[in-house]
Amino acid sequence: MISTDITIIGGGCVGLTAALGLADNGFNVMVVDAAASHTELTAPELRVSAISAASENIFRQLGSWSHLDSTRFTPYNQMSVWDKDSFGKIEFAAEQLSESRLGHIIENNNIRNSLITVAEKHANIQLKFNSKVNNLHNQNNNQTQQVLITLEDGTPIISKLLVAADGANSWVRKQLKTPMVFSDYDHHALVATIQTTEPHQACARQVFLKTGPLALLPLKDVNQCSIVWSSSPEHVDLLKNMTEDEFNKSITAATDSTLGPIKLISQRVSYPLTMRYAKQWVNQGVVFMGDAAHTIHPLAGLGMNLGLLDAASLVQMLSSPELLSPNKSSELTKQLRKYEGWRKAEAQTYIAAMAGLKALFAGDNKFKKLIRGFGLLVTNNSPMVKHKIIEQAMGITGDLPELAKYKDVI
């Protein structure tokens, strides 16, 4: 039997971030994941994330930022958002905050590889990839609570706390029958990589169409972007089944030829968009984080950053292995409840905001067109409001965990 302080199920970016932070705090951590370890990076990955300054700061402080493959990601210093069906447009620039960038567009597997590289060298971390969990049991022993999991190969692992970072379809969440709130966005997301005629100029673009938002995220190649096109399931199926020439014409028209004629250079992959929200984030010695606790619409690119802030918040709440001592059980419960309240409140805020934005920009209602056009115009002409929005997007304001705070390290 393997005994450890904390077991993390889920070796993705969020789980590994939590593992590194907790290990730095002195905990012995085991990470279990059914997937393989490092992923070979060949063609541009379809799944990318817009990493905020706060998330960058987390990676820098954990030591993983320097292990990213720098030839495969790019900073973006501008954002351009417009409404296809109105006069509304808003543009942001890093220079408005005297910064060199708003964030970075990075392939998810590039991030994961860098975290694994650091975790492999950490004395307090054990990694078990290619390992599926078969069973989970909570064991209450007078003053202490332990969580026992059994791997598919029969290996038992017992820990004082278990962290579920195993994604939107969390196996752990299902085992504990954790109550959930679900809401179908009635959207699927289509992701692909495109070649543009005009250079993207390190600008992240998003156009609101009546069918849903289309984001163009700049990649390392100045004439390549990753796209996330959110629309009805029927429209996404249509986009997937178009010939390449038909698709190229459709996306060029949808983007008002902002980057000239566009050419598809990858496969097209889609997935359904669902809002999920766990009613309990701390349950029977198990803590939920990332997509296992919440999923939101990708129109603002917040998913990965919210999950990383979950991890950093838990690291801040669990500052010492002493919290896992039998005589500290009440204090541990208190810290975990603080984590739950903190992160649930922020997730609720963003879930509501994304629902409101989706509703505002959907459809052909003339009154809504007028409101959103006027709103974008006023915002674009208000330096103070734009300044606050940029700070929020960069993650340099608000109640941030220490690991994420914007410091001179950036």
CATH class call of the domain at 2-41 and 48-69 and 108-182 and 273-361: Alpha Beta
SSE order, one letter for each helix or strand: EHEEHEEEEHEEEEHEEEEHHEEEEEHHHH
- Quick one: how many beta strands? 20
CATH A-level architecture of the domain at 2-41 and 48-69 and 108-182 and 273-361: 3-Layer(bba) Sandwich
* Biggest β-sheet strands, sense, barrel: 9 strands, mixed
What's the number of helices? 10
Low-confidence stretches: none
Going by CATH, the homologous superfamily of the domain at 2-41 and 48-69 and 108-182 and 273-361 would be FAD/NAD(P)-binding domain
CATH topology of the domain at 2-41 and 48-69 and 108-182 and 273-361: FAD/NAD(P)-binding domain
Residues in β-strands, percent: 25-35%
Q: For the CA atoms, what is the radius of gyration?
A: 22 Å
Q: Level of helix content?
A: 25-40%
Mean pLDDT, all residues: 88
Instruction: Estimate the global geometry from the Cα principal axes.
Output: globular
Query: How many angstroms does the end-to-end distance come to?
Result: 42 Å
**What structural class do helix, strand and pairing data support?**
alpha+beta
Oligomeric form of this entry? single chain
Summarize the structure in words:
With 410 residues, the chain is an alpha+beta fold. It has a domain at 2-41 and 48-69 and 108-182 and 273-361: FAD/NAD(P)-binding domain (3-Layer(bba) Sandwich). The chain has 10 helices and 20 strands. The protein has helices at 13-24, 53-62, 108-120, 171-175, 233-241, 244-254, 303-317, 329-361, 366-380, 383-394, and strands at 2-9, 29-32, 48-52, 74-76, 78-83, 89-93, 103-107, 125-128, 133-141, 144-151, 156-164, 180-196, 203-209, 212-218, 224-231, 262-264, 269-278, 282-283, 286-288, 294-295. The strands form 3 sheets. Strands 5, 6, 12, 13, 14, 15, 16, 17 and 20 form a 9-stranded mixed sheet that branches. Strand 9 (133-141) and strand 10 (144-151) form a beta hairpin. Helix 7 (303-317) packs antiparallel against helix 8. The longest helix is centred in the C-terminal third of the chain and has 33 residues, at 329-361. The model has no long low-confidence stretch (mean pLDDT 88).
